[in-house]
Model the fold of this input.
Amino acid sequence: MHSLTEYSNKNYWICRVDSRVKLVVTFVLLVMILTYKGFTFPLLMFFLCLMLCFRIKIPLNTFVLRFSEPAFIAFVLLVLKLFFSGHDVLFHINLYSVSVTGYRDGLMTGLAMVGRIIGAVSVVVTLGFTTQFAEIMAALSWFRIPKSFVEISMFALRYIFVLIDDATVIYSAQKNRLGYSSIKRGLKSFGTLAGSLTLKAFEHSQNLTTAMVQRGYDGYIPLPETLPLKHTDIIVSILFLILMGAAWRI
Done:
């Protein structure tokens, strides 16, 4: 669990901003990014978030790791839009008996989608780097988000790492027994790994329920106390959103 919050260092000003204010700013920025017609504003947000992450000394490999899956999805969408969507031909290539055609309007649509994905992910990742998970849950509770959602999120965070540890143990045991020595054995071992993790997830949920009931769980999980909002945080956030709104309008 520490790996998700180790970069939220109170020595940096952005980490000291109230989590409720950061949630509102993140939501507004996401709306701006998803409603923007081109890809200039999302890329602007990406570079701003990138510079902010470097400023608070986020390791580059950690940043790249967080973006690896969204970047792959964005690349696939770009390829699909380029070659399978549009009418304005950009290029045409004949490879033996296969004809490949790229479309200019499909490329522009794909770039807009890529920009939205990268921009939105960068904003959410920056929020995660600069805010403790417990603070985010406390802020959501303050915004009257259903209590069941907050509780499930906290339990999920806890047992994600338990399941990762279980998966690591099972994978190491399979690998030591040459379970991934061939494609066929690798697929079989992976199926066994997935099934074992599913069973362990049910087992952990039952154990957790029993333990909480025995300890008098009444449906209430204590969260960090929310302090009064600071006027400075509100004013700076409003000015920042006005500036970003002006960039969004351009």
